[in-house]
Amino acid sequence: MIAELGHYALILALVVALVQGTLPLIGAQRRTPAWIAVARPAAILQAGLIGIAFLALTHAFVTSDFSVVNVAENSHSAKPMLYKISGVWGNHEGSMVLWVLILALYGLAVALFGRNLPPSLRARVLAVQALIAVGFLLFIILTSNPFERLSPAPLDGRGLNPLLQDPGLAFHPPMLYFGYVGFSMAFAFAIAALIEGRVDAAWARWVRPWTLAAWCFLTAGIALGSWWAYYELGWGGWWFWDPVENASFMPWLAGTALLHSAIVCEKRDTLKSWTILLAILTFSLSLLGTFLVRSGVLTSVHAFATDPERGVFILAFLVLVTGGALALFAVRAPGLAGGGLFAPISREGALVLNNLLLTVGCATVFLGTLYPLFLEIAGGGKVSVGGPYFNATFIPLMVPLVAFVPVGSMLPWKRGDLAGVLARLRFAGGVAGATALAVLALVEGTSLLAAGGVLLAAWLAAGVLTELAGRVQLLRVDAAESWRRLVRLPRASVGMSLAHLGVAVFVAGVTGSVAWHTEKVQTMRVGETVEVAGYQFTLDGVSEHRGPNYTATSGQFTVTRQGAPVTRLRPEKRIYPAENMPTTEAAIHSTAMRDLYAVLGDPAEDGAWTTRLYVNPLIAWIWFGCFMMVGGGLLSLSDRRHRVGAPVRQAVRAGVLGPAKA
Amino acid sequence: MMRRYHLIPVAIFIALAGGLYVGLDPDRNPKAVPSALIDQPVPEFALPPVEGRGLGLASADLRGEVALVNVFASWCGPCRVEHPLLMDLAAKRVVAVHGINYKDQPKAAAEWLLRLGDPYTRTGADRDGRVSIDWGVYGVPETFVVDRAGRIRYKHVGPLQADDLEQKILPLIRRLQG
């Protein structure tokens, strides 16, 4: 009964979305206030209905109602509650319901907090959002009904893929979807602006916080996914350039570019059509990601239940949304008046360079991801594109991007003095050079490339701190005054510094984990000791035990260094009987400077075990860097200028906060 | 001029969408990896039979008649799935079926053939897996069609399904025998 209620609510939501997607659009065109006014209550109603559907599905999972096909196929009565709930979105159908729910929640936010938007703009934004919802609701109802019944109901379910039974992965998809779907806001604003034929600073002010929020979620989601891959898959790596990873990384790159170009759009009233194009592309890449994951077009380790029929539907939708948006762009964008002029050496120029590098980087990832498909279609045979391609093309683009961050964020708007900025960064350059030389001299086995990575990270960190120090007049006024200045800095600018520092930490983490990583694979008998990068791993024993819904074989390692005990590690191999599927649980001992990572493999002959042991220096910095980026984004978002619903304060903005903020 | 410039994104997108549409072809299997050995002669090898069987398998045995070479192991679940199809094929005597027993314990392999039935005319026990590597095997089961001249003409990865046999393998075998 409750499942049918959920199904019914979805259908009602579709009807509401149809109304919300048409009447306000026509109303805004004809200037009919009554029709424009439909948008707001419709968005609220739609969010309520999809919320009911989502709750109904959650109810079915929580109560293990196996008469619902989706529950029977993806849940199991012996599963811990957390995974019963995360099972709702651990499958194709349920994840689509979560998708539309998040879309509706964003619409709800516009309806509730968008009071200071011009009514026609708000109506158009909500209408575009509703049209996207129509597509996805149709998709769910026609091809992926999560409420389908099964008769007779089985006694127990087939269980959730054990790899997904993990706290990290329970929250990875919702985070990603909040990111992907969040970019629909920027998209809806872009389409609304194209329809209105007007893009101004106020518009950009509205787009920025939404883009920033989506970007924070997406960053957190990708970082969570990569962390999960690191500790759960037991391969010791954290990024594999898998098509599905790339599918989430492309919107991130485009979204990062959008984040920066929207600043120019807001502050200087220029780069308008480019910003609009980026907003369209970012969301389109999110949709493309959805398509790639669910259509089975590409081969990937992330096997979602793929289905070409669903693929055709999403593709058709993608053509309508992206094709339609780009066509509208082609018609309307030439009419958008350009704004302020700027010299190549200026903040604007630096942000254009940022956009150029990010979009070209995005294009290389795009090419690498889709190249095998297009080559095959063109009759060129099967190839796979992996790490070497991306390392050779993508990283050289990111190096100048990172290297220019300190310079760009110190350049003033309109026209800057490169020599002056570089002079101010002398100290940062010195610190970075000294750090790199010190690492090269002191750390054994440092290649020039690794030293280059250290140089880059140190340069960025020192540069960001120099900029911040200049802002608070460090050493020029006394420390207490500097502190007061720091506290009074706009949160948006502190957030920017924090996020850029996060990039530096990330670069250091990547450098460390790639350059000094040690890996040993061998068979070990109980009692045997293997040395990895100065650590002695001793296999003390292997035992069996039982978890709530699995049985496990666990190995006990004692790790010592120069005779002193460091830690004990207990990697496991689990068998989940409901799914008859094995998983590896790596054991990790993590400190700021290095991770010890142990995996228990298969038994070899004569009571020996295959083991894989890794020492990964600085790897935790990768996720800590991402965490700092998200923190910076959130801090910036909490700035009152960005706070959703804060009134536009033109005078305050131009006067007090000054030019040097982003 | 400006307008034409703004049309570029649409044009690129249309090309992309067309490509993706072709990519959706249900007959296309993105996971299939073609064998570099197709149309190449089988590698030179000679293997002793699985314990308790009379005839071993060597490259010379694969010349002169069309043959199906199946790589299997007693520890491999999917091999058990395709086993009845092989039994059926051997009983109908459409084609000579040979087996390469991949990295198996001699006892386990012998018992497997005894208990489930032996569809193979000849078997080769590839204890260390070296010969299978020469065949380009990267997982069991895999099945090869070898023509009269001893060249590999087709490779199937994973358990055989009735559809694969009916639609691809048997027609090819008939043509080769032709």
Question: Helix and strand layout, with pairings?
Answer:
The complex is a heterodimer of chains A (662) and B (178).
Chain A: H1 2-30, H2 33-36, H3 39-62, H4 69-74, H5 81-86, H6 92-113, H7 119-143, H8 167-196, H9 201-232, H10 243-268, H11 272-295, H12 308-332, H13 347-377, H14 387-410, H15 418-424, H16 426-442, H17 448-471, H18 479-488, H19 491-515, E1 518-524, E2 529-532, E3 535-546, E4 551-561, E5 564-569, E6 572-576, E7 581-585, E8 587-590, E9 594-603, E10 609-617, H20 619-637, H21 650-655
Antiparallel strand pairs in A: 1-10, 2-3, 3-4, 4-5, 4-6, 6-7, 8-9, 9-10
Helix pairs in contact in A: 1-3, 1-7, 3-6, 6-7, 6-8, 7-8, 7-12, 8-9, 8-11, 9-10, 9-20, 10-11, 10-13, 11-12, 13-14, 14-17, 16-17, 17-19, 19-20
Chain B: H1 2-23, E1 46-47, E2 57-58, E3 67-72, H2 77-92, E4 96-102, H3 106-116, E5 122-126, H4 130-134, E6 142-146, E7 152-157, H5 162-177
Parallel strand pairs in B: 3-4, 4-5
Antiparallel strand pairs in B: 1-2, 3-6, 6-7
Quaternary organisation of the protein chains: heterodimer
General form of chain A: globular
Alpha-carbon Rg of chain B, integer: 21 Å
User: If strands are numbered along the chain, what order do they take across the biggest sheet of chain B?
Assistant: 5-4-3-6-7
Number of domains of chain B: 1
Structural class by secondary-structure content of chain B? alpha/beta
List segments of chain B where confidence is low: pLDDT < 50 over at least 5 consecutive residues.
none
CATH class of chain B: Alpha Beta
**Largest sheet entry of chain B:** 5 strands, mixed
Main beta-sheet strand count, sense and barrel state of chain A: 6 strands, antiparallel
**Mean pLDDT rating of chain B:** 86
Greatest chain-chain interface? A-B, 33 and 24 residues
Helix run count of chain A: 21
Terminal CA distance of chain B reads 63 Å
